[in-house]
Amino acid sequence: MSVHYYFAGPLFCHKEVIGNHLLAESIRESSGGKYVANLPQREENQLRPQPLAIRDNDYRLLLESQLALFNFDGSDLDSGTVAEFLAARFLDLPCVLLRTDFRSAGDQNADGEKWNLMCSGYPHTKVVSIGAMDLYQKHFRDGVPLLESLRKFYGELSGILVGMFEDVMREPWCFENRAEAERIYRHFVRVCGGSLPLQFDEERIASVISARG
What pTM value is reported for the model? Predict the structure, then answer.
């Protein structure tokens, strides 16, 4: 049975969209098809009448996921990614935070996480911090074909992430019971507004909660 995870992160340039796609495909392969990405960029090319519709569609994908992966790279975290992370915590989705940026950033101590303190310390959340430059120097060498280097680079990274997915999925819900989960989901779609209350009636919310196990 496949587990669908929401893949959050910047998607505004060729490095971001290609990197997101390659990592998502590598995770699928490393997990034997168990972990399948709900990748927003696959739907962003659709023409939508209002920018709010893009936001609503991203939240729809988040609501329909059983897990979430957040790209926490950059000297300052992407604001949309942060908003989606806090939404995921409200919904008590198991979360994995990935940082491959080796630069120091944020306002924590030297041994703390390299982003703003307000994005740290949440339950049901795992952190993966591995320098992209280290992986690059390890796998991209003279004489090694590009595709082989790419497979090894993303294979190592995705293998680590799949392990973290397994760990965080084993942690218990913060919800006391299913009824509370459904109530929180209903509250979430109401406070988000837009088209979400029309998309997620009580029956659909119950189906989403059932998919989480």
Answer: 0.95
